[in-house]
Amino acid sequence: QSVLTQPPSVSAAPGQKVTISCSGIRSNIGVNFVSWYQQIPGTAPKLLIHDDDKRPAGIPDRFSGSKSGTSATLGITGLHTGDEAFYFCATWDNSLSAGVFGGGTRLTVL
Amino acid sequence: QMQLVESGGGVVQPGTSLRLSCAASGFDFNIYAMHWVRQAPGKGLEWVAVIWYDGTYTFYIESVKGRFNISRDNSKKTLYLQMNSLRVDDTAIYYCARGIRNYDYLDVWGQGTAVTVS
User: Fold this and answer.
1) CA of B102: which chain A residue's CA is closest?
2) pLDDT tens digits for B39-80?
């Protein structure tokens, strides 16, 4: 069982918008930055969002991040089949003195 | 370009040891914290360990404490993970990744090396 809680799966039609939630507690999301990673099966994870809501160079603005209290959200607009992947949230946990990931969310673009 | 290349994975028996390596290129290795993250077959990502840029601090996930040791050789731009007393549930692909501000996020990842304990 993961320290951060994500829905196992989400789905939406091409062109639509989807959000993926990530729930934690005060000692992790409540006091540290959240990052999001995209992983296409068989490949390494790729950084999508850092510092709660910042996009690295090369990540389109269809991807967005937000955080409120002990929860974070990844938003993806204008969905296309190339977005089908697993998405993971992550942060540091001060109580555990360890990095923590969410269990991952599988995105299906119907 | 910035690159991380893992090596050292393989198939080993329970109770034995293995050392993974991660060779860095294209950036100043000696100013960044470095992490190991693993992924068991069909499972999600699991953070394993981090080492500060100069090796002064290391942190581990509870399940590997006392068995795994993360280290680095900045002169060789290489990160290591010494894994002892391996267990079946250590079976995973092991990724190394560069940490920003030590642990705020991981911006460069290797392609991974597979470890099977059976």
Assistant:
1) A92
2) 999 999 999 999 999 999 999 999 999 999 999 999 999 999
